[in-house]
Amino acid sequence: MYLPSGVYHETYGASHAWWQTGFVRGKMVLLVAFVATLPLYANLYVVSVANIILYTILSALGVQLLIGYCGQITLGHAAFIAVGAYATAMGVLFWGLPYPVAALVGCLLAGVWSVVFGLPSARIKGFYQIMTTMAAQFITVDFIITHYVSRVGGREHYFSLPPGTITIAGWPVDSEVKVYYLASALTILSMAALANLLRTRVGRAWIAIRDNDIAAEAMGVNVVAYKLLAFFAAGVLAGIAGAVWIPSLLFVSPEHFQLSWGLWLVGVILIGGIGSLYGVAFGSIFVTGILELLKFAVIPLSDVYPALTERFLYVKEAAFGLAIVLFLLYEPRGLAYRWQQTKNYFNLWPFAY
């Protein structure tokens, strides 16, 4: 790791600290202060965009864990987010559970359900694993939730939660700003938990499996157990994203968790950078920002070409696909690698090498 001249470690703990210089600690304090005070000077539109970014980060963390750190492939991650969202909604609506308890139940159910579809990873990989994770989408969302769970309580297609239903220790989560603070806290806690997990024996085992599962097994790593543990952790992270979805919209429908959302999340980590927690944040900010800018570009053209507004959904998907192609062509390591290169440039400046 890069350290400025004169900065050195005197203890084992100091060498393993997250932020090893005063400059880095100062940057993180400013970042936390920025996140905490954003709603004080930003309008509701900016806060709503920030909520989309936070939700995307939470949704993509599990995908990054499976693909970027454990070498597994998933295209059905939206199914596990749906399990977390529906379990949380049902816990609050039908079982009378407090929102935090219902969210915890939803996370555990999503984790266990993810392990069910991770079981084939003990015998298959690659293309066959893609089909298995897609089966999770078809079985969970298109069959179980659409035809059975959504109709619990005489409902047709979606669960709606009356305003004021979601409370945390008496604090109602009933506005965009409150959802922002809830999503910010869960995002920071989830990223910190995953980052620390990756520094443990478990994280090293996942990375060993990703790099070469045969070599990892030869070194004594229980490959099957650690793969299933990765699926469980990814499912729990998906459940957290599902729990955040409930207070954000106050209703949940199978249409919110289509296969395209799982593909979208894979694209987010491709753009941000495979195998990097920073990449999840960079990818989420980039994708959300590009789509919001695209809206501003389409609005002035709607008078000249009205069909463009009606077809904005397809324009958005086409722009996202184009971004993935361009990144794979010109920046295959994603934005996280470019961020690292930029830091290296300033660390070495004015020297070229």
Shape: globular
Instruction: State the low-pLDDT regions, or none.
Output: none
How many H/I helical runs?
Answer: 15
Structural class: mainly alpha
Strands of the widest sheet, in order across it, are 1-4
Radius of gyration: 21 Å
End-to-end separation in angstroms reads 16 Å
Instruction: Give the % helix.
Output: over 70%
Biggest β-sheet: count, sense, barrel? 2 strands, antiparallel
How are helices and strands ordered from N to C? Answer: HHHHHHEEEHHHHEHHHHH
Q: Roughly what is the average pLDDT, rounded to an integer?
A: 88
Approximate strand percentage: under 5%
How many extended strands? 4
Present the secondary structure layout.
Elements: H1 12-15, H2 22-41, H3 44-69, H4 77-93, H5 99-118, H6 127-147, E1 159-160, E2 167-168, E3 171-172, H7 176-198, H8 201-211, H9 213-218, H10 223-249, E4 251-252, H11 259-272, H12 277-301, H13 307-310, H14 312-330, H15 334-348
Antiparallel strand pairs: 1-4, 2-3
Helix pairs in contact: 3-7, 3-10, 3-11, 3-12, 4-5, 4-6, 4-10, 5-10, 7-10, 8-10, 11-12, 11-14, 12-14, 12-15
